[in-house]
Amino acid sequence: MKLELNTGDRSQLQRIPGMALAYITIICALLSSVRSKILSVAYVPQILPHEALGRLTSTSFVLSQPLCFFNNQRELPCTVNTCEIWSVIASGPGVHNFDRDKVREASKILSASPYPDAFMGRAHKRYYITKLGFPRDFPCGQLPGIRYFKVGADGNCTTTNCNGILPTGSSVRVRYILIDPVTKSVVSESKWSFPIILISPKTSSSIDVTTWKRSGAMVVITVVLSCSLAVLILLLVVMLLLDCSGSVRGRQVITAGPDPESFRVRSSNINGIYSQTSGHALRPRLV
């Protein structure tokens, strides 16, 4: 069966590629217009530069707060008192997934990738969003103390936007975003942070046992040296006692002679030489 097209049908078929191209151009323009509404700031989230407890663990880390990130922007649909600062924590393909979802699902971006399921498997989007506060809470200027934001502070939480822990030893990136509370869409954003690699715990098979052997040898050496020192101290004490006893130059023994009024003194010195002295006792004289 052979189909024949008249001139009008042929002209309409020829117009289809042009119409498709026009529709694609319009869609791209709409997407670009939506994208152009998202302002960008030059700040990059950074891990806390100060040495602090829990600064970097296997499932969490500590960031510097977004101080003065969004306080001086103009042409925003909200103010420093109404705009909301959120953070995006992404792992692997989660960076690309968020950049896509903030345009395709602009008004649903806060629930596009809920935390409990964000890192369950490859089919999930590998990012989640959690709230920090308002721009007024992060003012410009020097503030006293250390201001920080801990990613993973809520532990194993189950709500959509909770600040849950991350997969052990994963590599993540962070971006701060500004949300319009009316449209629930992104109106401004910071740059992505550099990759932050969490600590990977070591298995028992990877522990170097030679370190423990060296430590045991050091303990034995320490015990031997301590015992030797104790023996030396004991010998020193004994020598001091002998020296003190030998400092007595001699001793005297007094014995009575046959005569009740006589006496004999026998003395000896440390050389074993004896000498004797005789005499008579003095009798008191009555007057």
From TrEMBL:
Keywords: Membrane, Transmembrane, Transmembrane helix. One of its GO terms (cellular component) is membrane. InterPro entries: Uroplakin-3. The chain crosses the membrane at residues 216-242. This is Uncharacterized protein. The lineage of its organism: Eukaryota, Metazoa, Chordata, Craniata, Vertebrata.
